[in-house]
Specification:
Number of helices of chain B: 6
CATH class of chain A: Mainly Alpha
Order of helices and strands of chain B: HHHHHHE
Structural class of chain B: mainly alpha
Shape of chain A: elongated
Shape of chain B: elongated
Largest sheet of chain B: none
Number of domains of chain A: 1
Number of strands of chain B: 1
Number of strands of chain A: 1
CATH topology of chain A: CHAD domain
Strand content of chain A: under 5%
Distance between the termini of chain B: 45 Å
Helix content of chain B: over 70%
CATH superfamily of chain A: CHAD domain
Radius of gyration of chain A: 20 Å
Oligomer: heterodimer
Strand content of chain B: under 5%
Radius of gyration of chain B: 27 Å
Number of domains of chain B: 1
Distance between the termini of chain A: 53 Å
Order of helices and strands of chain A: HHHHHHE
Chain lengths: 179, 202
Amino acid sequence: MREASPQFAEIALPPVAGLPADPDWDLGIYAQHTILTYFSQLLDQRRVVWDNHEVEGVHQIRVASRRCRTALQTFESLWPAGEAAAFAKYLARFADTFGVARDLDVLIIYLTEQLSEVSGERRTAYQWLLGRNVALREQEQRRLEERLIEFEADGFPARLVEYFSRRSVDLWALEAGDG
Amino acid sequence: MAKAQPITGLQARAATRASLPAMFVVRIAELWSWAEHLPYPDRVRQLHDMRIAAKRLRYLFEFFAPCFRPRFKGLLKQFKQLQDYLGEIHDCDVWVDYLRRQLRDAFRELSADRKELKEHVGADPALGEGAAHLREQLARGPAQGLLLMIEDVVARREQLYGELLGFWDELEAAGFRAQLVREVAEGARMERAAGSPVKEER
């Protein structure tokens, strides 16, 4: 039976996170802004993935988590050793969950598109693969849901936003000027 | 997958533009460090690592897109082409592994019928019926189609690999790495604007 939908945490971001990135900022602000931007894109996709009505949701959440993780790796020397890496490690595990589902989505789309183009033995194989992959994808949805529930229960969204809103620069203390 | 090379010594109070070389030099070198494996088509893991290194560098360009001149988009287009080749080759490698696993399962589904053939002694007439049944199962099942698909993917991979080598030679001949480094240096040199839209509260 399907788990009840989790309450996806709504997390407030500092106003500066809503501005376009500015090369004239100090690197600390630029780095925090980059991390929060991609993490916020990830958060936006949680409901889409849970509802499973749009195939792109899984792709988008995976891409956003990968970009966020790459940003954490890029800028990790701005924070005490191991701190950004711990967030990156959690995100890597999170993104891995979505990898299998995304691969299956891509495969199902490809096989469905190709089915009308092929004949004979290839067609038989495509139909056989399609049947297997659709069943696997349904199983995979349960894993995604478990991971989303865990993500909220761990309080990871609030933890990451709190950390990178305040360190090393307190973004809440910045004024968003009019340029 | 190879770990990302660490980028060290960044300072939160440093100017963003001035920090660009420290980050890009590491990621550009990381990508080119895999190029020595390009002449070997069977180095699947290294080609995958090169693809990941290209992705890390691409993301870095995305993070700092506002720092670069508009003409930089032309270079990024070539970079995207490199990523596409590496990505498609990786897809072929993954796809072939996947098809091989499916083939194993397809044969497993036939194994009961195949084992049944061993039960017969000599040229038992029932053996002939069993053989005909198995042949029919084989013809109706996915195994032959999967084998054809493997052949298709292998041919596609070979074609892409040849194109990748040609494209890489073109990039090298055009001094692509030096062009990227020059663009980063230009981005780092561009002047700080008079007023930043974000000021720290004092």
